[in-house]
TrEMBL record:
Sequence intervals crossing the membrane: 37-55, 64-81, 101-119, 126-145, 157-174
Keywords: Membrane, Transmembrane, Transmembrane helix
InterPro entries recorded: CBO0543-like
Source species, domain of life: Bacteria
Native source organism of the sequence: Paenibacillus hexagrammi
Keyword Membrane on entry: yes
Protein name (record): Uncharacterized protein
Length: 192
């Protein structure tokens, strides 16, 4: 196959995907938007951040947000990968064109990790990692599956445990980093 034929194949595939996304958005507008499970997801997208804002240790805000953004990025990447590989899929998305469950990746995972890092800081990170992984994998995932938001295809809750542990442990490690160069902004000097 030459480059032109490959490009045509890829373009045809993209056109099919685009058509299916349009169907997904239509279904979402007609049946999902403003449904009880959509409102539930909307609430889960906002409420944990408000709670975190009130309970956070103010002097650690920047450091903890740094960790939260890391967790968001990893959760989003892994969720997209799992969805695209056919391991699971989501119904009742808050945002229809995302193949992930926005409240999970952008709120529940990062806020939970940020709170765990700040609460009981003397508890060994492995204990917190195991706690986080078990609650995420055997309480949160089954709950959203029970609500019919999350559909497992080629995935088991057990598979999530080591991944969740590693995410927490790496986030904890990031939270202890302190080698940031201070940015010095020089005052603008008048040109002579």
């Amino acid at each position: 196959m030459d480059k032109l034929e490959i490009a045509e194949l890829i373009d045809a595939n993209v056109n099919q995907i685009h058509s299916l996304i349009q169907v997904k958005v239509k279904i979402w507008k007609e049946y999902v938007l403003f449904s009880d499970l959509w409102w539930f997801g909307f609430f889960l997208s906002i409420a944990p951040w408000i709670i975190w804002f009130w309970i956070r240790k103010k002097q650690s805000t920047d450091r903890i947000l740094y960790v939260g953004f890391f967790v968001m990025i990893i959760a989003l990447m892994l969720d997209i990968l799992g969805d695209q590989m056919g391991f699971w899929h989501y119904r009742y998305n808050v945002i229809p064109v995302l193949p992930t469950y926005f409240p999970w990746d952008m709120t529940l995972m990062p806020v939970t990790v940020m709170v765990l890092i700040q609460v009981k800081p003397k508890v060994h990170p492995f204990i917190k990692a195991i706690f986080f992984a078990l609650v995420s994998s055997y309480v949160a995932e089954p709950f959203i599956h029970w609500l019919k938001i999350y559909e497992l295809l080629k995935w088991r809750y057990l598979y999530s445990v080591p991944i969740q542990c590693m995410i927490y442990l790496f986030a904890h490690w990031l939270s202890t980093r302190n080698k940031f160069e201070k940015i010095m902004i020089e005052k603008e000097r008048p040109h002579l």
